[in-house]
Write a structure and sequence with these properties.
Largest sheet: 7 strands, mixed
Number of helices: 9
Distance between the termini: 25 Å
Strand order of the largest sheet: 1-2-3-4-6-5-7
Radius of gyration: 29 Å
Helix content: 25-40%
Structural class: alpha+beta
Number of strands: 7
Shape: globular
Order of helices and strands: HHHHEEHEEHEEEHHH
Length: 273
Amino acid sequence: MRFARPEHYDDRTTRLRPVGTRLPPRAAAAAACLVLGLGLIGGAATGTLLTGGGTDAAVTAQSAYRDAAGLWHAIPVDQLFPRTLNGEGAGPGGADRTWTRIGVAPDSGCRKAFDPLLYKALRPAGCLRLLRATYTDATQSNVTTVGLLFTGADAEASQALRTRFTEEGLDRRADLVPRPYAVPGTDAAHFGDAQRASWSLNVLTDAPVVVYAVSGFADGRTVAEPQPAAEAMKAGATTAPAQAGLGHEAQGIADRVERGLRKAVQKSTEQPS
C-alpha cells in the first residue's frame, strides 16, 4: 500500500543533484511522468483509506440481502411470528392494539396462497417459500393473516417488482388481494376468500421478501368490496372495513412482522467485534 506524499514535498529541493549535471530532455520527461504516476497512485490509496474502502457498505448490503433469503428455515417461528404482537398506537385514533397468534400454516409454495392474478404478478420474483400465520385481536372480533414470501429474486429484480407494484397500483387492486389462512377450530375457522376485507402488501428491496397481511371479520361475514389498508385507515373513511378498523389490523400486524424480520436480518449479518 502506498501513501501520498505530504503536500510540502518537493522533488526539486529535497534531492539535490551535483551542479553541472543535467538530464537529457527525454529522460527528464520520463522522470516527470513517473513522479506524477506515483502521486496519483498515492492519492488513490489515501482516498481509499479515508472513505473506508468505498465498497465495504455495498458488500455488507449484498451479504445481508443474500443471508435474508435463507432466514425462513433458520429463524424460530416464534421469532418470525410472535405469539403476541403489541400494537402500541396501531389502532384507529392511535388506540393500542394487542394481537394473539391462533395458528401457523405449514410452510408451502405460492400457487394456492394467492389469487391467479396476484400469483402471476409475483411470479417473476420466484417463490422459494411462503410462511403464514393468523392472528386475532383482543376482542376476538377480527382476524388477520400475515405472510412472508421469500422470493428467488436478486436485488435488482426486487427493486423492479416493487417499482411495478407501486407505480401501477398493484398493491391496491381489489382483484390482487392475498388469500387468508383459515385455522380450523379457531376464530379464523371461516376466514375465506369471501371474508377478505382489507389488506397490505409491501415488496422489500433490502431483502428478497414480500410482506403482506389480509384482515376480515371473525364471524365469517362476507365483504363485497375489500379496501386497501391505506384507504381504510384514512380519516373519515366510512366503509365497513374502515369502520371496523380492519385497515389498521392489516397494516399494524404487517408492520410489526416486517420489523421483526429486519431485526433478524440485521442480527444475522452482524460481525463479532
